[in-house]
Amino acid sequence: MTNGMQRKEHLYKVLVIGDLGVGKTSVIRRYVHQSYSHNYRATIGVDFALKVLNWDSETVRLQLWDIAGQERFGNMTRVYYREAMGAFIVFDVTRPTTFEAITKWKEDLDSKLTQANGQSIATVLLANKCDQGQNFSHNGIKMDQFCKDHGFLGWFQTSAKDNVNINEAANFLVKHIMATENDFLKSVVPDTISPQLDARRQAGCSGCSK
Asked: Is the pLDDT of residue 197 over 60?
């Protein structure tokens, strides 16, 4: 409680998807727990983690869904994707096949989940394991165009091991989710000033407009 007003809270479900072994669990553990291990087991089905952020004067709770790499070939993703507000699609920069799979993951996501306005949810691409010598910065223009062509907000080179760009990517996604939510609320919440304007119109302000 601050100055007698309740702190505003947001709960956002965020998906973390991509092929098997690209480092989805490592990215989440680094972000949520600031830890890293070489010994994570492959995720079976789906796992969860919660990250609480103090965002300006508001609280943001991110419910991160760690979805197993093989799930793209199953029927459960529709259930897992439900009500998500954002997503990270992750690939391993040392394995070209995981980059090639990105478009399939994005198509799967877009075919099963849209926002209330019919648009795709906010999605960010993570080029993970950049600590292993594969630097994508020289391909920046190509990657920017790829993101534009396939409906990604943007992309980040990340390393869960060395903690590179994990927080930056998450903040970027949260910022867009919040902006989208605010735009949606503005479109569905009636203008609270309207009654006052209506009263003025009744008083003879015929030239006033909303």
From this structure: no
Tabulate helix, strand, coil % of the chain (nearest 5).
Answer: 40, 25, 35
Q: CA-CA distance, 101 to 96, in Å (whole number)?
A: 9
DSSP summary character for residue 20: T
DSSP 3-state assignment of 92? strand
Strands (E), the chain: 9-18, 46-55, 58-67, 86-92, 122-128, 154-158
Q: List C-alpha distances in Å: 32 to 8, 10, 85, 151, 166.
A: 21, 17, 18, 26, 10
CA atoms within 13 A on the CB side of 138: 3
Q: 67-105, pLDDT tens digit by residue?
A: 988 877 677 888 999 999 999 999 999 999 999 999 999
What the block records as the tokens of 41 is 């087991």
